[in-house]
Structure formats: C-alpha cells, structure tokens
C-alpha cells in the first residue's frame, strides 16, 4: 500500500535508554503503562472466535554494537498471519503457569531458543488482534551464544534487526486505506538486509511502537505524540 508518511518528526530513543540495564529499570516501572496502539480487535469484522489469550517473546539479543530484535517470518501455509513477520509466540495452553511461561514455551517450540538463554525483564501492554487474540508481549534479553532450531511447520526464517533502528520513528511508515466508508491506518517498519526487504507491519509493528512509546515517555517525560 502507498506510504502516507513517516514519523520522522519524532525523536529517536536516546541510545542510553536502549542498554540492558536501562531497559530493565524502565520495564520494572511499566506495570500501568498505556499503549499508544491498544490493538485492532473490534475495529474490523473478526473470525467469529471468542478472544483467546496469547503471548509473544520480544527477544533482545546482546550484540557488540547494540541490542538486536529477533524476529521470525511465519510459514506461508499457516491459517493465521501466513508469511508475516512476527515475534515468536502463540496461544496460551492450560498447562502454562502464566503469560511468561506461554511466551517461553512457544518460543522454544517455534525456534528452539532454550529458556536458559532468556532473561525476562518485563512486559509491554497487551495488544488485541483482529484475529481475536489478546497478546501479552514479554520482553527478554538473550545471551549468546545460542542455537536456533526452527519448526519449519510454523517458521520459515529467523532474523535480527538492530533495536536502535526500530526505535527511530523516521523508519515508522504510516499507510492509510479506505474501509467501511472511512479510513484506517497501520504502521510498517521495513528492514533491508542483504538486498532483501522484510516488511514488518501489523501487530508486530504496533507492539514495537508501544515499546517506543514506553521508552519515549521515560526519555522525554511526556507524550511522544501520535
């Protein structure tokens, strides 16, 4: 879809706010944080399913230059969100202790990232999807070295994007489209790597934007704008 504009008028997050310790401290105080984008559930006709609890892991990998966000590209044959860029995660199961347990279990099942490599440092506000999931994003620091083993029935690829890139609103594109006699919009954060563009959009981009909002509030002491 055509790009209506970017959010280049908003400041990038100060790199000092993107260190492991700074993120630990900010997320420890984020229990009542208000999301900029609470979700698209209820805006569009959904599948008719009752809302289901789900969790994703927002994996922040320690690299020498900066933290990197580990993302996946979902398999093309899946019923929900086929081929889209997403965080590892999925639906809560009866045996899960809590939202964190769901995120860690699903991550290990989808990409083979063992819990021993994950330091959970907090949660972002829940996000309601158009496909009737109420998603809890769980933020975790990932300590290399680690080995991924992708479940090819669910995930075609895993890749990393530098966190500072995603926390720079000049890279946040807004797309507007007609819907039901009015207009709707969504965010995308395209990432170009080795000649290939990964189109990060939808719920994944929205949850990253909510992380930006959370860190921007701490950085500037106020609302970063809409």
In short:
With 226 residues, the chain is α+β, with helices and mostly antiparallel strands. It has 4 helices and 13 strands.
- What is the domain total for the residues? 1
Count the beta strands: 13
Average pLDDT, rounded to a whole number, is: 89
Q: What is the CATH class name? A: Alpha Beta
Instruction: Give the uncertain stretches in residue-range form.
Output: 220-226
The CATH architecture name reads Alpha-Beta Complex
Q: What profile does the largest beta sheet have?
A: 8 strands, mixed
Approximately what portion of the residues adopt beta-strand conformation?
A: 25-35%
Report the end-to-end length measured between terminal Cα atoms. 21 Å
Q: What value does the Rg take, in angstroms?
A: 17 Å
Strand/helix succession: EHEEEEHEEEEHEEEEH
Give the overall shape: globular
Count of runs of 4 or more consecutive helical residues: 4
Q: In the CATH scheme, what's the topology name?
A: Nucleoside Triphosphate Pyrophosphohydrolase
Task: Please estimate the helix content.
Answer: 10-25%
* Structural class category: alpha+beta
CATH superfamily: Nucleoside Triphosphate Pyrophosphohydrolase
